[in-house]
Write a structure and sequence with these properties.
The chain has helices at about 20-25, 35-50, 55-65, 65-75, 95-110, 120, 130-145, 160-175, 175-180, 185-240, and strands at about 1-5, 10-15. The chain is mainly alpha-helical. It has a two-stranded antiparallel ribbon with strand order 1-2. α1 (about 20-25) packs across α3 (about 55-65), α2 (about 35-50) runs antiparallel to α5 and α3 (about 55-65) packs across α4.
Amino acid sequence: MIEVSGPDGPMMVFRPWTALEAKKSMAHLPDVNEGGDKLSTELTRFCEELSPTMAELRRLLLSKLGLSNWYKISSRMPTDDHRRRCSDWNDDHNHEYRRAVETVARVIKETFPTRVDILRISRCQQEKDETADDYYCSLHEVFNKFSGLIEPADRGQEPGTWESHLRNAFLDGLKPEIAEKRRLATVLIHARHADGLLREKREKKQAKVDRDLQLSLSKIAMGAARYEPQREKRERRKKEW
């Protein structure tokens, strides 16, 4: 399906893919051996951008997965030839197509779970003539394939689970002569920096608690101040009676 200009605005029309187009379009998708989770995510984005019909998607997946892997999911694939009806992905007219794509993504994710192979990661060591940068690139690829962890799009200021495990693997795989250069002074610098971040985080948290407490006390005091004149007024009325 491709988007063209229609009488009332953009519209989707069917144009069959050539074999060359199909091959090129699927080339950038990750291999299923890297895990169904990664492939299913990229496949959903692929359908949103290029809009293959369900019949086309079945042929594309057969080519991408190979015959043996295709048989594992073929019986669970949507049978109807759902098509994208509107250029706006979230339009209600695309509901059936989106649901079919979500089904395909879920089936792939469930059928091909991410393989965890810690031994493969530990075997990725820095070679004799390999630079640290080249070693990191090799380890990065192996780690993402076999760690079972998803690389975050934004690592943030503090290391998360993915970065922490990759860091440990990187340090463990360095050449012995490089690993020995990790002097205590360098480690202390990083430790002090981490301590400073943690202390700053605790102080911010405590400051918030103090502000909230002060605000609560102020509200209580204001309520008591409003109540006191009313109490005195009631006392005067009782005396007048």
